[in-house]
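Supplementary Note 3. Input sequence used for the single-chain structure prediction.
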Amino acid sequence: MNGVRVLERLHGAAPPPFALLRRDRADGHGPGPVEVMFGEMETIGSLEEAGPADASRGPGSLVLMPFRQMAEHGLRCHDDHTPLRVLRISEHHVLPETALDAFDGGPVRWQDVGFTTDDAHYEGLVREFAASDAARGGLNVLLRRDCTALLPGFRPAVAVELFRRLLTGEAGAYWTFLVHTGGERPTTLVGATPQGHVAIEDQRVVMNPLCGTYRRPPHGPRTGELLDFLADRKESEELATTVDAELAVLCGLAGPEVRVEGPFLRRMAHLLHTQCRISGPAVAGARETLARAMFASTAVGSPYAEACGAIRRHETTGRGYYGGLLALIGRDERGDEELDSAAVIRTLDIDHLGRARLSVGATVGSRSSPPSEAAETRTKARALLTALTTAFPSHREPDDATPTAADDGPDDDAHGPVRDALARRRAALSSFWTSGEGAPASRAGRVLVLSTGGEDLTSLVHMVSSVHGPAEVVRYEDPDAGATLSRHRGPVLLASGPGRPDDPDDPRMEALREVSASLVRGRPPGGAPVAGVGLGFQLLALAAVPGARVAARTGTGLGRDVEVFGRRITAAFRNTYAVTPGPAAAPAHHGPSTLCLGPDGRELIAMHGAAVRGVQFRPESVMTSCGADVLGSLLS
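The predicted structure, written as discrete structure tokens, is reproduced below.
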């Protein structure tokens, strides 16, 4: 069927459920063709009902996952009852490039366009969060605000016109899409998202963590400003934190030899983002991969569970499909299952009455500037709405000039100074992850990793398995956890987690202190060590270092240059609290023989002895330059 006849079916007040989609090519060489899909739209209860792709080639189903679906992972959120839907694709067409040129969707009218809250309100949210202990401890969270509008006389053909405008007016999107659910009270999503999430390509699982936003000036980027953006430690730390969060997901979905590539630039018409690509051999099918990978940390924050809690506290309503996913499941030319998905951001959500909502947000952390984060949300809203409208109403927005479309220039990865700045960013990342190392080690015995609660340990376990040997997680709340750890003759590693290790009113900390003290006392001379990272390190220090005390961490930021056992490294510090050694210089007989202090001479950042060892920072982070070597020395 030719393109004109396909598009004719989209006219009228009630066309069948359909989707229009233009995706990045898998080889990265620009956008692919426009695809049109028709089928039956169903509301389902869980991803299990999405159904596997049948034996035929091509896309089989398009899944619309609302943000509230995170409840499947036991995470709390505002339940706004937005349905989980799937389009069972019965027809799939690829349009010629010119097919949409002659499409006439009729006039697009806009009324009452503007944010539902003013900048002062949003800046207050940012200021409150940035000053919190959680932010000081390394928590980053994407806080949203909503822009609303009314489209009088809206019908699906108008949405096709909006989609056509996005194709020409918003360059660089990972997916440009339109999804119309059909039915009596249909929902229509129209967007251009820069954020790809999880995909299965050639039997490899791929994720594309994205973070960091540079607002392109009206007449193109200025080299100096762009280089300042790439050198900004806050921006690089936010991207690294997002990569860490996605690595924790991907390591559970992939075999060995997980690899981090980048950062790269993703150029949009009005914005520029930094992103990485992480991948590994796929070990699960499309539905399981999708269920275990939701959602993109870019739209949530990290650490993930804590960020979800912060969103629930700071945002008063549900997100609908914003921050959720669109996922296309099908089979490739060989008949192998394939998956592609994108985060639902930079998306207009339009109901059957033409009421539209555009949600935008900024990633907020301890170093955030409230005016800058508010400006970022305005720019993100303007970027999409400028592409969708001929003139964005100025009475509800600042009078900034409208940026021009993307052009070749200093925001090209190949531009000399920019290329060099990106190369410096890449060189600063952990070589363990960027080299694609990670074949399981077999030279040593099993390591027991104690989960202290509240964090995903998948990437830490992946690194342990690679640098030492097989790893098994023991949960602190298991009734036999203490006995299991005490009986184990091999290395024991206490993982990190949230909280203050000396909190007298926290049953979790009380249990962890008891286990830690028992392990320190019970290590036999010449036996395998007990080690700790982050919170695990703090617990061991309290048990093994005389006079050790807990104090709030000083300063902000995650990445710090420190000296550990005579070696200068960059390390990721993510705990709210720190430990300081007491005035007694000599450690206990069962304690570490070497203590390393931070630059201030007070904070204990590492310890090493025959039986007890640890580091305050996170060796598994992509931000820690020699993390694998450090972790190997703790366990050997």
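The longest strand covers residues 31-44. The first helix runs from residue 3 to 8.
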